[in-house]
Amino acid sequence: MNTVLLILYLVAGVAYAVQFTHRSFSTSRIASTLLILAAFAHTFVIGMETMRVGHVPFASATSAISTFVWLLALSYLYIELTTGERSMGVFILPLLIALQVIPAARPMLEERSPLLESPWFGVHVSSLLFAYASFALACVLGITYVLQFKEIKAKHLGFFYARLPSLNILDVMNVRAVKIGWLFLTVGLIAGAIWGSQLRPSDDPRMQSMSLGDPKIFVAVLSWVLYSFELYAQRAIGWRGRRAAWLSAVGFGTVLLNFVAVSYFFTKSHNF
Amino acid sequence: MQLLLVGVSHRTAPVELRERLDFSTRGVDRALVALAGAPAHHEAAIVSTCNRVELYVACDDAAPAQTAVHDFLSQFHGIPGDQLAPHLYAKVGPEAVQHLFRVAAGLDSLVMGEPQVLGQVKDAFSLASQMGCTGPLLNKLFHSAFTTGKRVRSETTLSEGAVSVSYAAVALARKIFGNLKGRTVVVLGAGEMGKLTALHMRSHGIGRLIILSRTAAHAAALATTIDGTAMPWESMDAALADADILITATGSSTPIVSRAVIEQTMKIRRQRPLFIIDIAVPRDVESDAGDIEQVFLYNIDDLQAVVQENLSKRGTEASQAETIVLQEVGKFIIWLNSRCAVPTVVALRQRFEGIRQSELRRLEPKMAGLPPEARARVDEITRLIVEKLLINPTEQLKAISDAETVATYSDALNRLFGLTSDDAAEEATAGAGSTKKPRP
Lengths: 272, 440
Prior knowledge:
The structure holds two protein chains of two kinds. By secondary structure, chain A is mainly alpha-helical. In chain A, 75% of the residues lie in helices and 0% in strands. In chain A, 44% of the residues are buried. The mean pLDDT of chain A is 84. In chain B, 59% of the residues lie in helices and 12% in strands. Chain B has 18 helices and ten strands. Chain B has helices at 15-21, 23-26, 28-37, 62-77, 81-84, 94-105, 116-130, 136-155, 165-177, 192-203, 216-225, 236-242, 259-268, 300-339, 342-367, 372-399, 403-417, 421-430, and strands at residues 2-9, 41-48, 52-59, 89-92, 185-188, 209-212, 229-231, 245-248, 274-278, 295-299. In chain B, the strands form two sheets. A six-stranded parallel sheet of chain B has the order 7-6-5-8-9-10, sandwiched between helices. Chain B has a four-stranded antiparallel sheet with strand order 2-3-1-4, sandwiched between helices. The longest helix of chain B has 40 residues, at 300-339. Classes of the chains: A mainly alpha, B alpha/beta. The A-B interface holds A 23-25, 148, 152-153, 155, 157, 161-162, 165-169, 237-243 and B 154-155, 157, 160-161, 172, 174-178, 269-273, 290, 293-294, 296, 298, 302, 305-306, 309.
């Protein structure tokens, strides 16, 4: 099923690329329709999986990524449908496609551990997934800001200048996305800490390595610090525009590192 | 019916002549009445803008109609015909169609792709149509022209990108700030260029407009003409701290805004973006001020380079727009040719209806004893038979797209059914009353 989703996202991605380069109205309608279709199919897959395991599938790294792709697609569609602005799609779709490769290539193995029954665990994971989706959007907004900023500064008004919304809108939306993401990240981290503190080490051998020394937890806290700084700098010292955009891009880099690389290769405790 | 176009444009006539030919001063409505009143003309429309005066006429024969339009132009404006003739161009049929479509698409404009001309063509048509001067030919012609204009605008980027310095400045400001509502614009210097750019900004709904000039009286005078606020030259720092957009256009021979001043201002502004448009020559703002983060500095040369680039982009888009024009011309010509069949269709219908009426009249004495319902039924049945017999030939005739085939078919029908125009007219008058008028 995840392979089918991957193909659907791929097709939508091609349509978004075509509509972005050619700026054709008819293709843009097709692109949106295709993405809505993909998100709809993804909703169905997540729904089936939820019915099978009894909770939203996010308790393994692979299924968490699938759920994340679904959330990001929905968040992006929400923004596109409310603002009518389609130019971000061509940047979001590659991310969706790249991440969807993982669940398409590896089976989703959901474990049903009594440890994961705690409501704190649910809050922890769902908040973080929301936060990551917001950060992904902020990252794309940041990248597009920088691309256009460079063209305007260089006085060469070219490809992106003709296609992207104004710098101000990109900046305002970036800050908004980071604020929302930061809020969810904070809630998610606190919920995770509470959940961890409620468990006894004897419950699960992996509990022993749950500390700041664990790469996954460390990088998560690091990204929290980074985004906190971005919000502070934006308010206090006027780090808006390009600097905020860069911070959003770097911030999401750490999130992605944590979410994908660390999950599979480094962590001892958090393999989900 | 034929389509004739006679006109002058910026390509054929100097501005002095175009001014004298401008209908708007003497009243386009009056001109339309006079033009459409001429016996050679069935329909008429006048497109009169500062760059062109064009008269579109539907007529039976183009040659006499053309002479009539020439005479009309020279009489209406009081310009001797021989003075006018070398500047006039005349186009007939497909060429006239193509010309109007190119005009509507902005391909024939002084500034290629300028969007206003489509609106002007629309206004010209709606006036002519209000005055009752248009008919089936011009209605279809102008609506096809609007379609062409819209297609060119949505399917090409011919009208994209600012092609004047003031518009380029506004477009850039909108790319930096998004909406200009509530933005503060500061103008240094009370010259013409600064005023022009400020006025463009004003038309995009900016908030405050502050004018500073070394001569307080000049600033005050400009402030009243463009609805701004004059501030003393000494309060420049305060004005800069407020500004979102700074337009500098003084006659100073040395820069008056240094990089250091801008740096200081940006701190006070907490790095709020500042767009500086330096249209003064020599420049008013030190050029390295543009290196400061969140300062966007464009001087007159930069803006002109943007304009040049946009113009050359429009040039490359033009061929695509020409293709659209040709497609639409093709569609229109097909429609026009299918209209050639209309007189034959009308004659055929009138012929059939005439026969029906005369037969009914002949049978009148025999039907006299019938009740009124039965007579009505007879009338209805005969009418339906005629209608059904005619449906297929009518549709077939109208569907033919090339003029030659239409002519062959019409000829055949004329011979087979003995349709001559006199005959048809006679039958039509005889059969008036219950005749259902065929759609043109």
